[in-house]
Amino acid sequence: MEKNINVGKYIISTDGDIGKIVDVVNLEPGAEDFFKVNFTKNNCINYFSMKNTKNYRILASKENVQKAIDIFNTRYEPIEYDSTHEKINAQKEALSETNICEIAKVLSMINQEKEVHPQVNKTYTIALGMFIDEIKFVTGKKLTDIYDLLKLKIPAKKGKK
Predict the structure, then answer these.
(1) What is the pTM of this model?
(2) Domain 10-58, what fold?
(3) What separation, in Å, do the N-terminal and C-terminal C-alpha atoms of the chain show?
(4) Architecture of domain 62-149
(5) N or C end of the chain, less CB within 10 A?
(6) What DSSP letter does each residue of 80-149 carry, written as one string?
(7) CA-CA-CA-CA torsion for 103, 106, 109, 114, nearest 10 degrees?
């Protein structure tokens, strides 16, 4: 595979930051290659492993983002698990998916539940935030419009005490 194929594309990190892949570099001779990513908003450069995509994903095309929105808005039958432990592990693993359409389905299924398990809630919240940020970046739509598209309530802003 051509290692420079993703240069010029954008990634979203688990922190919700979006940056442009500007190069593929090898930080140590004989070691793995990394994406060199420029984050203009924070005026910084960071490096991401090409092998370990746990902390980022490459942004989807506009067409795939639209498919993901449609998938998110689809109702799914709940999955039956043998135990709460199995459910937690399966949901956490599914939320680490790098395909936006797969993530949309998992987010939709969890969103349809009456209550998100506390051990999944943080991972779910991060994945949902990344999903919304990706839609915003790729489509150029306003946040309020995205929440409307996804049929979600805009979260209340936390006030200072």
Answers:
(1) 0.85
(2) Thrombin, subunit H (2.40.10)
(3) 53
(4) Up-down Bundle (1.20)
(5) C
(6) P-SSHHHHHHHHHHHTT-S-HHHHHHHHHHHHTSSS--HHHHHHHHHHHHHHHHHHHHHH---HHHHHHH
(7) -100
